[in-house]
Amino acid sequence: MNEELSQMAIKIALSGFGAVGILEWLKNFFKFKHTWAYALIMPVLSVGCYAAVYFLPCYVIGSILTVGVVQLNYQVIVQGFKAIIKALLSKVGVNDDKETNNTVESGEKDHADQ
C-alpha cells in the first residue's frame, strides 16, 4: 500500500508541475481580461496531465514536463535575474537606459552652460 501511495504521489507531483508550466506557457498566447478564466482551465489541464502520466508513454509526459520546466525556469531564472539587475541598478542610481541617456544629456548641457 505504501508503494502504491508513493507512486501516486510522484504521478501527482509530475502532473501538477507539468500543468502549472503549461498553463504559464498558455498565458503567453491567451490573455484573458478576467483572470478567473485561468482557474477554469487549470482543472482540465490537471486532469489531462495526470492522464498523460498514468496512461501515455514516458516520452509524452517527458515532453509535457519539458515545456513546463522550460517555462517555469524562464520565469524564475531569466525574470529573476532581470529583477536582481534592475534592483542593483536602481541602488546605484540607474533605473533604465532612458534615464541613463537623459542624465548624460542633461549633464552635458549643464557642463556646456558653465
Using brief descriptors, characterize the structure shown.
elongated; mainly alpha; disordered C terminus; 114 residues; 4 helices
Biggest β-sheet, characterized?
A: none
- The level of helicity is over 70%
Helix/strand structural class: mainly alpha
Q: How many DSSP E strands?
A: 0
The rounded Rg comes to 23 Å
Instruction: Based on Cα principal axes, name the global outline.
Output: elongated
Name the helix and strand elements from N-terminus to C-terminus, one letter apiece: HHHH
**Would you tell me the overall average pLDDT?**
79
Residue share in β-strands: under 5%
Number of alpha- plus pi-helical segments: 4
CA-CA gap between termini: 84 Å
Q: Which parts are unreliable, with pLDDT below 50 for 5 consecutive residues or more?
A: 99-114
